[in-house]
Amino acid sequence: MTAERLARFRATLDRRQPDLRVLLDGVHKPHNVSAILRTCDAVGVYQAHAVWPGDRLAVHRQTSAGAGQWVRMRTHEAVGPAVSSLQGEGLQVYAAHLSERAVDFRSVDYTRPCAVLMGAELWGVSQAGAAAADAHISIPMAGLVASLNVSVAAAVILFEAQRQRAAAGLYDTPRLDPETYHQTLFEWLHP
Amino acid sequence: MTAERLARFRATLDRRQPDLRVLLDGVHKPHNVSAILRTCDAVGVYQAHAVWPGDRLAVHRQTSAGAGQWVRMRTHEAVGPAVSSLQGEGLQVYAAHLSERAVDFRSVDYTRPCAVLMGAELWGVSQAGAAAADAHISIPMAGLVASLNVSVAAAVILFEAQRQRAAAGLYDTPRLDPETYHQTLFEWLHP
Ligand SMILES: C[S@@+](CC[C@H](N)C(=O)[O-])C[C@H]1O[C@@H](n2cnc3c(N)ncnc32)[C@H](O)[C@@H]1O
Ligand SMILES: C[S@@+](CC[C@H](N)C(=O)[O-])C[C@H]1O[C@@H](n2cnc3c(N)ncnc32)[C@H](O)[C@@H]1O
């Protein structure tokens, strides 16, 4: 049992992608946050980020339906500093945003270090988030409804990232630095 | 205003795909059904199917968040007859189901007439549904959580179908038969 758990944890950490992130810009419905974290876990996102007031984290922890414990979550007070901090780490920030500037989501390179910025259910990506992002990406819509559910949009983009990264061999050898790897393994084994 | 609406309706009907369907096998949470119908509308699904007891349709109509009125929904009492009826129309039925028989979801051909069968939130695809399907397809999971949210899984598969169909030119000329096209246009203009 413990050996099996250890093997599963190692197999997961072997595929975690420290340079593929998600930044949630005011996404607040628990079922959406939960679905997004499940998707993050599935495509190997090691760390997600969220902009929300301090007291919302409690909600997230209760409702992440199992995935919350496997995807590290960092919260930020405002989107501007959050985007700057990701850019400071060398990541491109792609805002999922149906703006005039938007390019097709399949045309950008997700094998380079990047973060996908998702907007809130009602008002979408904030003005500050849209302004700070390096690019805007959109998923084509062939129907009458203007936008997709946010957890659906995040998944469509993240599985395109997964496809590109798998093709580039980025899941074939461990990509976390050894210290983070072992620290996380320790935390998962001793929660 | 009316001319603009007419143009939008026509542009949508020009891209509707009568031979790309979704069959929901006991999916019952309104927010999931709603998110799936939004995705159906976005990728041009003309008709969706659902297996559920007669009295559930009311829930669906209230909660489809706008997309329900643009995607025709047919309900079925049981999954076996629903699958047979789709197969009788010449469609392949691909069950999204993490079984031993499952092949990677990107390896199947969505340009041929087909329906994607999605399982319920808790128990997944029913035994009868899994047995009746022509193939099982799975989305790769690189993490610790066993499955994706059902509306997320449906979207990842449907946007792969959209990608294949766009590459094959299936959105370039109208694919609905003229009678269905005009009948639907009439219904949308005079709800
Ligand atoms: C329900 S949408 C927000 C809609 C909002 N009314 C707007 O105009 O932006 C929630 C988020 O999902 C993402 N999203 C939804 N549909 C999308 C699409 N077709 N392309 C890119 N992102 C999308 C965006 O991040 C968006 O901010
Ligand atoms: C939450 S899952 C059901 C989980 C259920 N415990 C089971 O074992 O099947 C709901 C539905 O989403 C779809 N789904 C979720 N993750 C999937 C994946 N990785 N591949 C294919 N389909 C998936 C399937 O149709 C599944 O029946």
TrEMBL record, chains A, B:
<keyword id="KW-0694">RNA-binding</keyword>
<dbReference type="Pfam" id="PF00588">
    <property type="entry name" value="SpoU_methylase"/>
</dbReference>
<dbReference type="GO" id="GO:0141100">
    <property type="term" value="F:tRNA (guanine(18)-2'-O)-methyltransferase activity"/>
</dbReference>
<dbReference type="InterPro" id="IPR001537">
    <property type="entry name" value="SpoU_MeTrfase"/>
</dbReference>
<keyword id="KW-0820">tRNA-binding</keyword>
<comment type="function">
    <text>Catalyzes the 2'-O methylation of guanosine at position 18 in tRNA.</text>
</comment>
<dbReference type="InterPro" id="IPR029026">
    <property type="entry name" value="tRNA_m1G_MTases_N"/>
</dbReference>
<dbReference type="InterPro" id="IPR033671">
    <property type="entry name" value="TrmH"/>
</dbReference>
<feature type="domain" description="tRNA/rRNA methyltransferase SpoU type">
    <location>
        <begin position="20"/>
        <end position="159"/>
    </location>
</feature>
<comment type="similarity">
    <text>Belongs to the class IV-like SAM-binding methyltransferase superfamily. RNA methyltransferase TrmH family.</text>
</comment>
<dbReference type="InterPro" id="IPR029028">
    <property type="entry name" value="Alpha/beta_knot_MTases"/>
</dbReference>
<dbReference type="GO" id="GO:0000049">
    <property type="term" value="F:tRNA binding"/>
</dbReference>
<dbReference type="Pfam" id="PF12105">
    <property type="entry name" value="SpoU_methylas_C"/>
</dbReference>
<dbReference type="GO" id="GO:0002938">
    <property type="term" value="P:tRNA guanine ribose methylation"/>
</dbReference>
<feature type="binding site">
    <location>
        <position position="139"/>
    </location>
    <ligand>
        <name>S-adenosyl-L-methionine</name>
    </ligand>
</feature>
<protein>
    <recommendedName>
        <fullName>tRNA (guanosine(18)-2'-O)-methyltransferase</fullName>
        <ecNumber>2.1.1.34</ecNumber>
    </recommendedName>
</protein>
<keyword id="KW-0489">Methyltransferase</keyword>
<keyword id="KW-0949">S-adenosyl-L-methionine</keyword>
<keyword id="KW-0819">tRNA processing</keyword>
<keyword id="KW-0808">Transferase</keyword>
<dbReference type="InterPro" id="IPR022724">
    <property type="entry name" value="rRNA_MeTrfase_SpoU_C"/>
</dbReference>
<feature type="binding site">
    <location>
        <position position="148"/>
    </location>
    <ligand>
        <name>S-adenosyl-L-methionine</name>
    </ligand>
</feature>
